Amino acid sequence: MQNLSKICYAGDLTPGTINPVITNGYSKERWPNRFEHIHAPEAYQNFAMIEILVEEIETLYLSIEGHQRRVSTWDTTQQSWQHNWLAP
């Protein structure tokens, strides 16, 4: 991960912390020194890498003009996505 990307995970505010104003995850005191914290162990506490294998995605679009629903399924034999419309 590049250093500029690490800044996003080095904030001192825990993810999900409620704030009265918009926040970037840093306190006012820590923001000016953000580049000094990118290699700190606590920067990695707010980061996780998750590996998933998606086999099916279903989408539902809600509209006053009529809902639409579609399922996309990965076909391992053809190595491609198969799409089908479903009744909403």
What's this entry about, in short?
This protein has 88 residues and is mainly beta. It has one helix spanning 3-6, and strands at 56-61, 68-75, 80-86.
Write a structural description.
This protein has one helix at 3-6, and strands spanning 56-61, 68-75, 80-86. The chain is mainly beta and 88 residues long. It folds into two domains: 3-46, no CATH class; 56-86, no CATH class. A three-stranded antiparallel sheet has the order 1-2-3, with no helix packed on it. The two termini are 41 Å apart. The mean pLDDT is 89.
Question: Any key phrases for this structure?
Answer:
24% strand, 3-stranded antiparallel β-sheet, 3 strands, 2 domains, mainly beta
Percent of residues in beta strands: 15-25%
Radius of gyration: 21 Å
Distance between the termini: 41 Å
Record the strand order, biggest sheet.
Answer: 1-2-3
**Oligomerization category of the chains in this entry:** single chain
Report the principal-axis shape: elongated
Mind sketching the topology for me?
Blueprint (H helix, E strand, L loop, with lengths): L2 H4 L49 E6 L6 E8 L4 E7 L2
